[in-house]
Amino acid sequence: MDGHYDIGIIGGGMAGLSAATALATTAQRIIVLDKGRGPGGRMAARRVEIGGEQVSFDHGAQYFTARDPAFRETVAAWEAAGVAARWPAAGDDAWVGTPGMNACVKHMAANLDVRWNVRTERLCRDGALWRIEAGGEVFVAGTVLVAVPAEQAAVLLAEAAPDFAARAASIASAPCWAVMAAFAVPLPLADIFRSDTGPVSWAARNSAKPGRSGAETWVIHAGPARSRELIDLPKDEVAGILLADFFAATGASPTAPVHLDAHRWLYAQPEARKGKGPLFDAGLQLGIAGDWLHSPRVEGAWLSGRMLAQAVLQERLASTS
Ligand SMILES: Cc1cc2nc3c(=O)[nH]c(=O)nc-3n(C[C@H](O)[C@H](O)[C@H](O)COP(=O)(O)OP(=O)(O)OC[C@H]3O[C@@H](n4cnc5c(N)ncnc54)[C@H](O)[C@@H]3O)c2cc1C
Question: What total number of domains does the chain contain?
Fold first, then answer.
């Protein structure tokens, strides 16, 4: 029946799609709802036209590691599918999505029923089922998995699962202002700048990542302290301030950009980690996953989603035996 699912997953970032991919092997009816306009979550890529040419900026996660054996296997499959490649400039174990950071999430979503632009507003019990009110529609599911940043999970779960909501509310994420800049000429800098102390924590020549082409593009991230200082300023003002910070930090001569924009990530990276692993309440048929339940990285999000899927499958097996 339309609108009725075995499993409804809220959040189609790396964690939600990892859970969905693992569960899809069991022929259950699964739907993923995501408020974003397209695939990526915090592994986002922003496409813009510069001088008649399409250019893409990775303004969220910059690269990811693959250390866990199961994740390595998945990343090897992504590499074979042409949606991930090594980026040696960032380290021996650094990978990026190709041609943009969101390519891996897009690849995963292609085999699943994912609805973009659908924000879940409310979750509530309806007898033994879940009623998901999202994007003006109602979806009904036997099991609900929530894979959104902690602060958003705390709000979404407040009514339906106060214990999970309290756990989510105990996590604080650091914000990050990201600047996307393009230049008419290459800047005389190495591809990557990192700092643990200055206002700019990271800057990278986006156009030097594998699979990218076109204009000289840079992504600049402000560190948590600088991001908090600038948190409520208009993005155009922030872009100018952080570009000046970038030139000051790197020592490059200030150069006028041909494109300049900024994006504010309110919940970029969870600061606190209270115990590893996702949570699944078999009685409620409700689970939570996300980087904040494992480690604040792409790999942590993937592992968290996969662990939640395993918990759901184990519970299904136990209840039928
Ligand atoms: C600026 C920045 C830099 C980073 N750098 C790195 C890095 O270099 N290396 C690394 O490994 N990691 C990095 N990370 C962290 C990495 O991006 C995350 O750990 C990972 O992508 C989290 O995946 P997730 O699925 O848990 O969450 P998300 O990617 O946030 O996915 C959650 C999804 O839920 C959706 N959603 C939220 N609320 C709702 C709702 N109510 N209804 C429907 N959908 C909803 C969102 O649209 C989103 O798509 C960075 C993150 C940022 C922001």
Answer: 2
Dihedral sign for Cα atoms in the order 126, 131, 133, 139:
negative
pLDDT digits over 23-49, tens only? Answer: 998 878 999 999 999 999 999 999 999
Ligand 1 atom nearest to CA at 270: 19
| Domain coverage including residue 91 | 49-100+173-271
- Report the predicted TM-score, pTM, of the whole model to 2 decimal places: 0.97
Question: Helix (H, G, I), strand (E, B), or coil: what is residue 91?
Answer: coil
Q: What angle (nearest 5°) sits at the alpha carbon of residue 134, between those of residues 130 and 140? A: 25
Nearest atom of ligand 1 to the alpha carbon of 65: 11
Do 149 and 243 lie in one domain? The reply is no
CB–CB of 59/41 below 8 Å? no
Q: How far is the CA of 298 from the centre of ligand 1 (A)?
A: 8
Instruction: Tell me, yes or no, whether 106 and 91 share the same domain.
Output: no
3-state secondary structure of 152: helix
Residue nearest to atom 41 of ligand 1 (CA): 120
74 lines ligand 1 (CB under 6 A): no
One domain for residues 185 and 299: no
By most ligand atoms within 8 Å of CB, the mutation choice from 14, 42, 157 for ligand 1 is 42
Query: How is residue 210 annotated by DSSP?
Result: T
Query: Which protein residue's CA is at the shortest distance from atom 5 of ligand 1?
Result: 61
